[in-house]
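cron nightly-structures :: item 1 of 1
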Amino acid sequence: MVTINFSMCYHCSFRMLGDEWTVKPEVMTALESFTCVMYGQPKEKYINVVRGKLLRSMVGENEALTIRSKVDLSKLPPCKDNLVPHINRVNHRIAHFKRADQPSFWHPAPTDREQGWEKTKNGLEPIWSCRPILPPSLVDLVEKTAEEIDEDDPDLEIDHDLLHDDELHNEDTMY
């Protein structure tokens, strides 16, 4: 019975998407919680906590994240600052679909606040994050990692073409 009530909560939240042009806070909270479930953490409600737990499990509980850490970032959920604009973009599209039977209706521009899109010289682009991509603590880590690379091999040159060669990447590759 708990499983049925559990999934009904999410079902109702998904059905509420697109009812309005902005996502209600309770729907946003439920979708964040659902994302936690998708990543195998049904008891968590906050995606950033899940992200931290999964990252710690990849790195090792008492280990520091370094250039040598075997971390597959594709296995991590998005952080909340990335999840929110994604949900906003989905809501915007679903709101259009829910009104498809109406010949004409008012709608905000996709670039309006909380719609998840921005206008660029090339057209519309998704807003990928509500805030800067890297928090200051990770900027420091990236700088430290770059210093480690320089110390290990100062003549090391990165072959960017090789990094982006699709034939070299498979499911077993750690990034």
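cron nightly-structures :: done
Residues 2-168 form one domain.
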